[in-house]
Every structure is written in structure tokens, then in C-alpha cells.
């Protein structure tokens, strides 16, 4: 099995105990970031890790059944290029997890990338929806979400940075409207690259383990 023989994946999934708990992350308002870039770890590794993470997050959310509803803190799960990880678990999250305060924000480029059952779950449960400029096939489908304000032509001809939006407020859909993102302004925000590295190092010290120790433990268990 390549996930066992490859060092990167073996050291991630081969440990006997996880260094963190998703339930703890949710309940204590912590932040979990997973860079599953295909360019960095490979397409198969990226997909495999995503398919491991999503169900674990769902299970952690469902375990909040032991808390009174007013004690469940909102937790937001952001998934980019979510068609790569769109399993039936996503449909379950959309249908059930909101009662456990698990909120899902997903982004992808083309509707055709999404399986039919997942697509139906998305459009049947998602309240707030945003669309940048899209192609003719997607515009035909998305027009239903933004009528009567936006037509297919409107969605196809959105300018760079322009967004068509429909919100859900207090359980009621609002009238669709458009706005423009201010990317130059965002780019101009001062950034402290050193602070990012400091945060990463603190996270490594708190949750990480020495790779040599991990490899040694795995070798003993596997009798390498």
C-alpha cells in the first residue's frame, strides 16, 4: 500500500494516537489549517487526507449531542476545491450538522465537477450563495438561484471581482444583489511574515512530534 510505504503519508497516518482533538478544536474556538495542495503533497495524498479529515470533523460535530444546544459554539469549516472531497459526508453535514453548530463554506469552479447527489444537497440546503463570473452551462443552472434579479447573461458578464449574491437571514432568503471585491485594498494590508512563522513554530512545539521518534515507533509496530 503506497500510503504505508511512502514516508510522508506513513508518518501522518501511522501514529497510534492523534496529537489533537477536533472536538476540542470546535468547543474551544481553535483554528485548524490543512494545506492539501496537490502541488505540495501530490493528488492522491491530497484527496486521501481530505477524505480522512471530513468524516472526523463530522463525527466530532455529531458528538456535540451531549451538550445542550445553547452551549454548542459555532464552528466554521471552509473547504476550497471541495469537489475533490465531496463525499456523502458533505450531504450529511449540509442536512444535519447545522443543529450541532457546524457551518460549512465551500468553493469550487464548475457545477459539473460535483456529483449529482452532492449537488442536490448543496442547492437544497445552502442558504447563502455567491457567484463570480461563470460559463454558459453554469449560468443556466445558477439563474434559478438568483432570479428574478439576475439572468444568465448577467452572471456570464460579471466583471472581474464582481459577485452575485443571495443571503439567508433569519431563515429567509433575501433579494439577490451584487457587489465588488476590493482586491487591491486587500493586497495593500500590511503583513507580518515573521509572525506567521512564529505561530507555525508554536504549533509544532505544542502538537508536533519529532519525525525520528514517529518513524521509530512505526518501525517497531510494523517490524520493519
From TrEMBL:
InterPro entries the record matches: P-loop_NTPase (IPR027417), TraG-D_C (IPR032689)
Superkingdom of origin organism: Bacteria
Gene3D superfamilies, sorted: P-loop containing nucleotide triphosphate hydrolases
TM spans (from-to): none
Domain TraD/TraG TraM recognition site positions: 75-135
Protein name: TraD/TraG TraM recognition site domain-containing protein
Native organism taxonomy: Bacteria, Katanobacteria
Amino acid at each position: 500500500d503506497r500510503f504505508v510505504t511512502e514516508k510522508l503519508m506513513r508518518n501522518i497516518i501511522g501514529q497510534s494516537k492523534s496529537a489533537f482533538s477536533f472536538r476540542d478544536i470546535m468547543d474551544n474556538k481553535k483554528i485548524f489549517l490543512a494545506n492539501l495542495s496537490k502541488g505540495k503533497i501530490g493528488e492522491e495524498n491530497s484527496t486521501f487526507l481530505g477524505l480522512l479529515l471530513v468524516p472526523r470533523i463530522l463525527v466530532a460535530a455529531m458528538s456535540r449531542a451531549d451538550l445542550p444546544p445553547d452551549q454548542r459554539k459555532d464552528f466554521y469549516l471552509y473547504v476550497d476545491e471541495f469537489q475533490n472531497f465531496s463525499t456523502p459526508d458533505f450531504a450529511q453535514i449540509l442536512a444535519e450538522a447545522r443543529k450541532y453548530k457546524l457551518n460549512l463554506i465551500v468553493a469550487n469552479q464548475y457545477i459539473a465537477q460535483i456529483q449529482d447527489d452532492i449537488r442536490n444537497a448543496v442547492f437544497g440546503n445552502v442558504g447563502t450563495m455567491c457567484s463570480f463570473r461563470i460559463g454558459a452551462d453554469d449560468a443556466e443552472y445558477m439563474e434559478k438561484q438568483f432570479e428574478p434579479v439576475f439572468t444568465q447573461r448577467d452572471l456570464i458578464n460579471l466583471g472581474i471581482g464582481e459577485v452575485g449574491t443571495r443571503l439567508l437571514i433569519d431563515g429567509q432568503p433575501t433579494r439577490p444583489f451584487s457587489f465588488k471585491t476590493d482586491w487591491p485594498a486587500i493586497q495593500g494590508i500590511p503583513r507580518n511574515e515573521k509572525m506567521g512563522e512564529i505561530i507555525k513554530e508554536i504549533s509544532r512545539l505544542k502538537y508536533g512530534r519529532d519525525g525520528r521518534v514517529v518513524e521509530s515507533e512505526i518501525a517497531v509496530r510494523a517490524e520493519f
